[in-house]
Write a structure and sequence with these properties.
- It is a single chain.
- By secondary structure, the protein is an alpha/beta fold.
- It is built from 16 helices and 13 strands.
- Helix 6 links the parallel strand 7 and strand 8.
- The chain starts with a strand and ends in a 5-residue tail after the last helix.
- Bound molecules: pyridoxal-5'-phosphate and zinc ion (ZN).
């Protein structure tokens, strides 16, 4: 039993019954559905005391706020309850009063995508599918493969040619059928859609499946709990398809509808200058226009975002903003985050830090604001770009005199 009462099209607002599957029949593929809950009924269960008394150490502690039933939740990999760190060194460096980083890289497949994928496989079981499929820049796919394996489902995955080394190895390790399309994410997406239509697999594609946002939103509930049942002024996150930022918004929106918080935090969506459809649309007020996918941050190399309405609404409704940062700034953030806070993120994972730095210099975020950065994925997923950002180790022979020379040059001694 859930508190879901309907689905509603984000474009034409047509309402569908709770057994609807994917998109609006009138608006087609763009008619992304939003899951609608009965908040008055939910309120009788989900109170502040509810949060305080939960003992489950995964996202299913929030089950009454979600759109899945409980049947198989005890068989899943453990998703969520990721740490929120106070970033003491970065607070000092940027003279910010309160800065936190939520490390989503500790999820089972090492990215925030696990919050959605675990819901996807539960839904596939609910609907009696044996196979689940998606296209992905890399993380949604490696995550789906892991959760499908865990629950005994087959997974079929379409990735672009450029999917990073680590992510590809993950998918194969989890036993997925991995199809690397000779093209970009747009091409992988199109082929996956045609294949899903033909073979009838359960569809985990971003945005198309309305339950993915309902999984991702749990990150907002965790922030609410982590911050002592309050919310920050800003949450900063990188944006590709727009589902993650939409999930953040939905989670905070739920809390507001339940009377647990007064305002939704401002959401800052960050994109790369080489792939910035949301930023351009935000600045010009025009509808989103397809762009190139020219960024090394593969997880946000999304030229045609699949969740434009929910993604844009998250920023507008929260009084937030979209900004862009260069790939150079992303690589610099990877170095900075590692050496100041001991956190290693993939390029799209550290893009939030680059966004914060940009937003501070533009006065969008103030030093007196309480800020949370989402580090959405672990750095080990993409060793090639990590090397680009971080360089290589020093190679030396086993000889103290050589070592002395090297250390003297770099002044790397404790004296
Ligand atoms: C998917 C992803 C994002 C962006 O999420 P969207 O829903 O595509 O906007 C950011 N960072 C990482 C690491 C991701 O895997
Ligand atoms: Zn519609």
């Amino acid at each position: 039993m859930t508190f879901v009462v309907a689905y509603q099209c984000t474009i034409c607002h047509k309402v569908f019954s709770p057994d609807a599957r994917y998109t609006c029949d009138e608006c087609g593929e763009d008619g992304i559905l939003d899951v609608i809950y009965d908040y008055e009924a939910m309120k009788t269960v989900v109170t502040k005391t509810y949060f305080k008394t939960q003992t489950r150490q995964d996202i299913f502690r929030y089950l009454p706020l979600m759109s899945v039933d409980a049947t198989h939740i005890d068989k899943t990999l453990r998703v969520g309850m990721t740490p929120l760190y106070k970033a003491h060194h970065l607070e000092q460096k940027f003279n910010i009063d309160a800065l936190y980083i939520k490390d989503e890289g500790v999820n089972p497949s090492a990215s925030l995508k696990d919050r959605a994928s675990v819901v996807a496989v539960l839904k596939a079981l609910e609907y009696d599918h044996q196979t689940i499929a998606c296209s992905s820049t890399g993380n949604a796919a490696s995550s789906l493969a892991a959760h499908a394996a865990r629950l005994g489902l087959k997974s079929v995955i379409f990735v672009p040619k450029r999917a990073p080394f680590g992510k590809l190895r993950q998918m194969i390790a989890y036993g997925a059928r991995v199809l690397q399309v000779d093209g970009d994410y747009k091409a992988a997406y199109r082929l996956s859609k045609a294949a899903i239509d033909k073979y009838g697999w359960y569809n985990r594609n971003a945005a198309i499946n309305p339950h993915m946002v309902e999984g991702k939103k749990t990150v907002a509930y965790e922030l609410y709990e982590d911050l002592g049942y309050s919310v920050p002024d800003w949450v900063v996150v990188s944006v590709g398809d727009g589902c993650t930022i939409a999930g953040l918004y939905k989670g905070f929106y739920d809390l507001k509808m339940l009377g647990l918080i007064n305002t939704v935090p401002k959401l800052l969506g960050v994109q790369s200058t080489g792939c910035n459809p949301f930023v351009t649309s935000f600045q010009t007020g025009h509808p989103l226009k397809e762009t190139e996918e020219d960024t090394l941050a593969d997880s946000i190399a999304v030229g045609k975002p699949r969740n434009p309405v929910k993604g844009m609404n998250a920023v507008h409704a929260s009084n937030g903003a979209f900004i862009e940062v260069s790939d150079q700034a992303i690589l610099a953030s990877m170095r900075l985050l590692g050496k100041t806070e001991g956190l290693f993120g993939e390029p799209a994972g550290v893009t939030s830090l680059a966004g914060l730095i940009e937003a501070l210099s533009n006065n969008i975020i103030k030093q007196t604001d309480t800020v949370v950065l989402l580090m959405t994925g672990n750095g080990l997923k993409d060793p090639k770009n990590a090397e680009k950002a971080l360089g290589k180790p020093t190679i030396i022979p086993e000889a103290m005199d050589k070592l002395n020379n090297v250390l003297d040059e770099s002044e790397d001694t404790d004296e």
